[in-house]
Amino acid sequence: MLDEVFADLDSLDLGQSVVDIGAGFGYSTRYLLSRGLRVCGVDVDPGVLSSLGAAFGEFVKAGLLKLYLASAEHLPLRDGECDSAVSIMALHHFKNVEAALREMLRVAKKLVVVYDWAPSTGGVTNPHSPAELKAKMEEAVSVAKRLGFEVAYAEAWYKLAKRKA
User: b or e along 83-96 (b: 16 or more beta carbons within 10 Å of the residue's beta carbon)?
Assistant: First the structure.
């Protein structure tokens, strides 16, 4: 499933630097680093960040990966600090979708792209119920459209994307 998302991301110009919001287990971080990008990994879980630091220590030492303990709604980055903002399968955890999307728009110069689970994956590829995922998706799509994002749907995921001028 993540292979599909990464294949979709392969078609996008993310620039040279990206903030990875909801870095989690590091799948997206690994993918972004493999593309030769400078990455700012953000997560709310200190244990996750510790694991990421251990797993990607050589990238941290080389200055290619910076790790931040923060929520999507309060990114500790300057305006336009990264070329792109990416979030992969974390949006359903955001407490305030609008604040998170606005923060991503603030810190990204070129592109914001967010992927999350479709309701059909509830209880199958993640522990959330289809009803929970449907409610979060409906909220996210409504907010994203109001903010000028494009929305695309796949069988197991959906994507919110906005290219900046």
Answer: bbbbbbbbbbbbee
pLDDT in tens, 36-45: 999 999 999 9
The H or E element that residue 54 is part of is helix 46-55
The candidate with the shortest Cα–Cα distance to 91, out of 128, 124, 62, 52, is: 128
Residue 113 main-chain phi, psi, to 5 deg:
-140, 130
Is 127's pLDDT higher than 90?
Answer: no
Closest of 58, 71, 129, 130 to residue 97, by C-alpha: 71
What's the token pair of residue 61?
Answer: 């030492």
Query: What are the tens digits of pLDDT across the range 20-37?
Result: 999 999 999 999 999 999
What are the φ and ψ backbone dihedral angles of 156, each rounded to 5 degrees? Answer: -105, -5
Q: What confidence category does residue 125 fall into, taking pLDDT thresholds of 50, 70 and 90?
A: confident
